[in-house]
Amino acid sequence: MDKKEIYERLTTIVDKKNICVDEWLKRHTFTRLGGKADFFVTPETYDEVQGLIKFAKANQIPLTLIGNGSNLIVRDGGIRGIVMSLTKFNKITVDGNYLIAQSGAGIIEASQEALKAGLTGLEFACGIPGTVGGALYMNAGAYGGEIKDVLDHALVIDKDGNFVKRKAEDFGFSYRYSNISKNGDIVLEAVFRLKPGKYEEIKALMDDLTERRRAKQPLEYPSCGSVFKRPKGYYAGKLIQDSGLQGFRIGGAEVSKKHAGFIVNVDNATASDYIRVIEHVQKTVKEKFNVTLETEVKIIGEDPKEGEG
After folding, report:
1. Percentage above 70 pLDDT, the chain
2. Sign of the dihedral through C-alpha 114, 118, 121, 124
3. Residue 168 confidence (pLDDT) above 60
4. Does residue 307 register a pLDDT over 80?
5. CATH 3.30.465.10 fits 92-201, yes or no
6. What's the rounded Cα separation, in Å, for the pair 277 and 294?
7. FAD-binding PCMH-type domain: which residues (predicted)?
8. Which residues belong to the active site?
9. Which residue from 152, 163, 150, 159 is spatially nearest to 179, judged by alpha carbons?
10. Mean pLDDT score, 88-97
11. Per-residue model confidence as pLDDT tens digits over 16-42
12. Among residues 45, 42, 13, 12, which one has the least CA distance to residue 28?
């Protein structure tokens, strides 16, 4: 099936305005990195998601899901097949002590809605720049809280296109991990079980966490957030700082001088620049401290062909 035929088939599943051909993915990642997607599709209904999954599977077309690109590096060669973004699923509602958020909603916005409703439990997420779906995918956490602490259940669509309700324990949560990718699930919406709290106390905690984040993190540059998982018994940022790597730069990608756990795009970096900095940091820390740094950021896509990028 050629690209023209794939496009025509896609228009029978989603509206034309929600299909982009040869779309630069650097427009959709926080790092401002990434080559082109053959097709970038933004469905508006769950049935459309189901239709895209079934179409891709039946025709053996690669289907890649991205959220808002906050914890993602897309290589310079881009992504073949269909890239699907669920950012148009951004509705958040509150029912008693439960907060229901669609997967494309920001987890920051979810925490703000919890505040408005006087519900406590999501304060830790007030500075995490990902989507709700992305937060479940990696069991996002900060300041002592994690998604697994507050998730009640979620509606997912499985790899065969079936709608399934999964309880929190079904996700196999551990540090920065869930089994969502392994199972081939796509999160459509999440239901968080929170507790009644006092608005003033919730707001004070969120304000404190926001200020701590602003003071420590290099928010003035594009980045993917914290690049590395915390190694057992250590802090990644401290290991990188003690290795003398702050300010280390390849092309436009640099280890942040403000927070060593961040790699920032200071001058039109390519994904190759970014990945080479990651690899240099890993090699240096391993040589100096015999500690292996594992990436928290997800790296996907293809390397550029000769003469591209």
Report:
1. 99
2. positive
3. yes
4. no
5. yes
6. 14
7. 33-197
8. 176, 226, 296
9. 159
10. 97
11. 999 999 999 999 998 999 999 999 999
12. 42
pLDDT tens per residue across span 235-276: 999 999 999 999 999 999 999 999 999 999 999 999 999 999
Residue 40 carries which side chain, given as an amino acid letter? F
Q: Which amino acid is at 70?
A: S
CATH code for the structural domain at 219-300:
3.90.78.10
Which has the closest alpha carbon to 227: 281, 297, 140, 144?
297
Q: For the chain, where do the domains classified as CATH 3.90.78.10 start and end?
A: 219-300
CATH, domain range 3-85: 3.30.43.10
Tell me the CA distances in angstroms from 201 to 125, 137, 180, 208, 211, one per residue in order: 16, 29, 34, 11, 15
Map tokens 């060593």 to a residue.
Answer: 260
Contacts within 8 Å (CB) and 24+ apart, 233-237: 234/289, 234/291, 235/261, 236/260, 236/261, 236/293, 237/261
The pLDDT value recorded for residue 215 is 86
Q: Cite the beta strand spans of 143-228 per DSSP E.
A: 145-146, 151-157, 163-167, 186-193, 195-196, 223-226
